[in-house]
Design goal:
This protein folds into two domains: about 30-135 and about 265-315, D-Maltodextrin-Binding Protein, domain 2; about 140-260 and about 330-350, D-Maltodextrin-Binding Protein, domain 2. About 45% of the residues lie in helices and about 15% in strands. The protein is built from 14 helices and 13 strands. Strands 5, 6, 7, 8, 9, 10, 12 and 13 form an eight-stranded mixed sheet that branches. The protein has a three-stranded parallel sheet with strand order 2-1-3, covered by helices on one side. Strand 1, helix 2 (about 50-60) and strand 2 (about 60-65) form a beta-alpha-beta unit. Helix 8 (about 195-210) packs parallel to helix 14. It starts with a helix and ends with a helix.
Length: about 350
């Protein structure tokens, strides 16, 4: 038997090397199969039921990969090939496009384009929607107990989370570009391209605010409110609306100076080789009935205006949407107010303070 040991050892070594090479390859290039597309997206962007329905209807398999924030998406797009569809937020579209990582959309292949809400189109990050298309959206607002809102006489300001005189425990977004944008809006209004002094002021404001932060989180703002671990949560509307469903004593309100919407978009990576399959998937997920179902499930606002009438949502959802539309002249999208390097450095200093 001993004479077989070297052969066995060699076989094991080759199997190990082969397995290792496959693992290394899949880190930079996703393995693709016929009739399969890879979608890189936020968790809970597409429901399992919808993906199963699409696969049953078309025979096309969808493999979903999740990222937790836009920074992770941008980083992986720079080192991994094989994604066929991604869902970047507003400012991430511009970054990815500047890096030549996106393919122009062929709108002649989109059978729903005329139904997209004009409110969401032609935004600064992609003025002609050449590379991206809104899929769903939310509005950033404050969640708090109605009792606290009454003390504010029914109206809230960004002062509530940024003025150091207000001593409230806060759940704050963990997205650095969002956090820097909100602080900048508080200090400078809608100004773009901040000076070095203004960037320092924004950073110092966030460092001062940190004393009141219970947690940096966007997707768990509802938990911190319902569990009473914080008094105020600044978060996307869907999470705060979930909190209201669990605890009706919670209110959702927009700051009186104005606020921001976050738009999740679909975009096609420049390296995809499955465009035909991707367009079939896009047309499926933009069906009015599908958008209505997903909006009802996740409490996000659908991009299709005609999908709203079929959503199964509560009064808080409709009020948040109505309030946003009423204040549309005070609603902004997240833009790059400083370079990526400046934003990264500022956020590191905030978190390290």
């Amino acid at each position: 038997m001993k004479r077989f040991f070297p052969k066995i050892a060699i076989m094991i070594m080759w199997v190990f090397l082969l397995f290792s090479s496959v693992r290394i390859m899949t880190k930079s290039n996703l393995l693709t199969n016929k009739n399969t597309i890879h979608v890189f997206t936020f968790p809970e962007q597409f429901s399992y039921e919808a993906l199963q329905s699409f696969e049953k209807e078309t025979g096309i398999k969808v493999i979903v990969h999740n990222f937790s924030n836009n920074e992770e998406l941008i980083a992986k797009m720079n080192r991994t090939k094989g994604y066929d569809l991604i869902t970047p937020s507003d400012y991430a579209v511009k970054i990815l496009n500047d890096q030549k990582l996106l393919k122009p959309l062929d709108k002649s292949k989109l059978n729903f384009y005329k139904h997209i809400d004009p409110f969401l189109l032609n935004r600064s990050y992609d003025p002609n929607n050449t590379y991206s298309l809104p899929y769903d959206w939310e509005v950033m607002g404050f969640g708090m107990e109605k009792e606290l809102l009454e003390k504010q006489k029914g109206s809230v300001s960004w002062d509530l989370i940024f003025d150091k005189k207000n001593k409230h425990s806060i759940a704050m977004t963990n997205d650095p570009i969002e956090a820097l944008s909100f602080a900048s809006f508080y200090l400078t209004g809608s100004k773009q391209n901040l000076s070095a002094v203004e960037i320092t002021n924004v950073k110092n404001l966030l460092i001062e605010q940190k004393k009141s932060i219970e947690a940096y989180t966007a997707i768990r703002g509802d938990y911190f409110l319902v569990s009473e671990n914080c008094e105020i949560a600044l978060a996307p509307s869907s999470f705060l609306l979930k909190a209201i469903k669990q605890k009706p004593s919670i209110a959702f309100v927009l700051p009186k100076e104005g606020t921001f919407i976050t738009i999740e978009n679909i975009a096609i990576p420049a390296t995809t080789k499955n465009e035909e399959l991707v367009y079939k998937f896009i047309n499926f997920i933009y069906k009015a009935e599908y958008q209505a179902e997903e909006s009802s499930r996740f409490l996000t606002f659908p991009a299709r205006v005609d999908a709203l009438k079929d959503t199964s949502t509560n009064g808080a959802f409709k009020k948040a949407l109505l309030d946003t539309r009423k204040e549309k002249n005070k609603i902004h999208t997240i833009d790059m107010i400083m370079t990526e390097q400046e934003a990264r450095q500022a956020w590191v200093e905030v978190k390290a303070s």
